[in-house]
Amino acid sequence: MNWKTFLAMLSRDAHVARRNAIQLGLQTFLQPLLFVFIFGRIMVGSGYMPESYKSLLLPGIIAISMVFTGIWAVAMPLIAEFQWTREIEDRLLAPIDVAWIAIEKVVAGMLQALVAGLMVIPMAWIVLRPGVQISIHDPLTFSVILVLIAAFSACGGLALGCTINQQHIGLMFGMVITPMIFFGCAYYPWSALKTFPILQKLVLINPLVYASEGMRATLVPQFPHLPLAAVLGALLFFDVLLLVVGLRQFESKAVS
Amino acid sequence: MVGVRTQDLCKTYNSSPPLGAAGGFVARADAKGSKQQKNQIPALDGLSLEVMPGEIFGLLGPNGAGKSTTVGVLTTRVRPTSGQAWIGDHDVWKEQAQVKLLIGVVPQRPNLDFSLTAREILVFHGAYFGIASKLRNDRADALLEKFKLTERGNQMVRGFSGGMMQRLSIARAMMHDPQVLFLDEPSAGLDPQTRILLWDIIREYHAAGKTVVLTTHNMEEADALCQRLAIIDHGHKIALGTPTELKATIPGGFLLRLRFGNQTEGLLGRLRSLTGVREVRSTESTGVDIYADRGGSLISEIANLAASSGADLSDVHISEPSLENLFLHHTGRSLRD
């Protein structure tokens, strides 16, 4: 393991992210903030939704922002860099094992997802206030869940980015991302699905469910949520699974 | 100084080779022709090579011969189906990180990092190789100057012309001062002046005690630059030696490619009997290749002979001793085919 190379690649990614900061910011925050505004302010303000929906919504929005920032931050550059231009090759030829290049991408994606998650909290809070009742009861558990969510999103980005070709990006959004968002329990708690028992079981294969429920469990425990142990176990499972799949896919793309 | 060695390298692609790694169109026509195992595309078939430390070595062959795949295997980008490759004492596929420290690679098509400026590409490349900040900045400036890119140094490379990208790729490969420099078709797409500049730079790099391995299908380049050459076709080595040695193996040296309107019986035998003719080969239906000690002075005799045999001589092409002729002699195909 060559730390100098690893850190140099990380600083390259940070440099590129800084250069595209405005674009990245809009991409990361516009959609969740619009969502928060429409559902948290307009729907609640006009009385179609109860006041408590604000507090229920915020953790879900944090989870979604993190997950999609992480997936996006890793998958999109990889899809582009593995195309015919093979832009990634100058890093593949750097004096480090190929797997570490993939891990560097995961770390960069995790950092972006964490920044997105931590920034969306105050931003959404400002849009939603007054009437949001969130608090971090257990900072340690909260941090662990944040890191596990960031890791799952970045590893998911690695697996997707090394599996999908440029011409299938649209399909990825239609077939993977969209269902994941709507069945991810981000806009409603998992317990709200109890009237659809089959669906309620089915959505458990969606890792976003555990991200949303985990955020709810630590920020708004007054609402019903999945048990913390289940959330932690499932997130860890998806982290490892997606990392293993992602690394395999990365190596098969990197070396022909 | 570091040498390069391969032993019985074989590579079969299961699908069409990834463009980046393999560069060319590897024997695709052959795969289509034979209906055996679909998509199994053989690129290397038992290739053994030895490049001496401090040598400029050329791999010469037509598109699809396996040149880029060979470079791919030696530069950790293509995993061989069987066989071994070494850079110095390091097994390429067992000690990848050490091997990557020793080599610099200029790919066939520029693979620059489009998210960075030209200068950043060089500086970050230096950082990947652990070069200290001041040194890598100085080196980047020196290389930009050398490759006449200083003015464009702070621009994103997306808008660069093909020739500029190629120059920057070469500068990047030299950034960490590698012991072995691999250049895959380095002068493809370069204008003549830049090509001369590149040749000078390669010679200068070699003079500093470095090993250079380049692939080309350009005869002139191989002749001008390489100390030794391997001619490869269909993943085999078909000839090896210095350009002069190789050219001396062509019978006679001159090649006369003739085409007749119709080929009459006994024509080949009569052509063979002409003085200075070393070898006569019939090509396609009505073509004949003659390897001979002399060129132009044979034409009148050939024309007379053709007229008296009733064979209508319709086309004549004379070429002097060259690697192109050598390739043709070994494979029956032109390098440009």
In brief, what are we looking at here?
Chain A is mainly alpha-helical and 256 residues long. Chain A is built from ten helices and no strands.
Features:
heterodimer, A: 256 residues, mainly alpha, globular, B: 337 residues, alpha/beta, Rossmann fold, Alpha-Beta Plaits, four-stranded antiparallel sheet, 13 helices, 26% strand, elongated
Question: Could you please describe the fold and organization of this structure?
Answer:
In chain A, 74% of the residues lie in helices and 0% in strands. By secondary structure, chain A is mainly α. Chain A is globular and about 60 Å long. Chain A starts with a helix and ends with a helix. With 337 residues, chain B is of the alpha/beta class. Chain B folds into two domains: 4-112 and 160-240, 3-Layer(aba) Sandwich (Rossmann fold); 251-320, MTH889-like domain (Alpha-Beta Plaits). In chain B, the strands form three sheets. Chain B has a six-stranded mixed β-sheet, with helices on both faces. A four-stranded antiparallel β-sheet of chain B has the order 2-1-4-5. In chain B, a hairpin with a 2-residue loop joins β4 (82-87) and β5 (90-91). In chain B, α5 (118-128) packs across α6 and α6 (133-146) crosses α7. Residues 19-36 of chain B have low confidence and may be disordered. The chains are: A mainly alpha (256), B alpha/beta (337). At the A-B interface, α1 and α4 of A face α1, α4 and α5 of B.
